């Protein structure tokens, strides 16, 4: 039943022809998740076609012929139940083309990320309602959306209607985020500048292969970056991609392994943001995922050979140019 306090999905306002209404299969950890799921799905302009617990997920998913989105809310669910359901969720998503949106608590991060990271999945750690709705809207619009074409509309008209519906969703989410304290601050933007650092000589760029860079030196760079938080708001300097590169490079030199949760901590940003960056860096072939041979609920992240070579040359070039590392 649609909550009367929430706006109707944009698709509900379309009375003819073109009606993209993404279908959501919800797997929920407890009864408290039902309210959040319904609110988020409604705001995203989608509809829930089934809502089940983790114990029922396997049997019910096998009955579903087609899906756009599989929503997993593991908060409050038993670890064994979640683990048993994730395999069939992945199989169903691959067979149907459905997108996955997974919601979980920080303590569940490694267990959820181990099987799902790197797949076509949005991972949300303790998200707000706005984050849930945004993820579902994105998943629904990029997945196997259901289109009912009456044949009376041409392609231009259908695209115009789709743009209007996406705009309505964006407006609803914008209104919601304005009321959410976690989205209260406007993002800071750098001023435009024409300054560029002097180029590193080509010989330095190609031959800079350090033989003496140590893990301690890399850790010193990380500590220097963290020192800024003692004097300024740490959020002003958020640079998760670089922070994770530094942490993984230090770990490589130490011959240590870094779990997904540990890397999220190193990123110095909220876990959901860190997970997005891990996925981005993996797609860019800078990070690689390695399964834990002793615990399938844990995965490790390492630098690719290309990324490791780039970090080595960066440190070598900085040393040769006698530049401060940061």
From TrEMBL:
Signal peptide: none annotated. Keywords: Coiled coil. This is MarR family transcriptional regulator. Residues 152-179 form a coiled coil. InterPro entries: WH-like_DNA-bd_sf (IPR036388), WH_DNA-bd_sf (IPR036390). Residues 181-208 are annotated as: Disordered. The keyword Coiled coil applies.
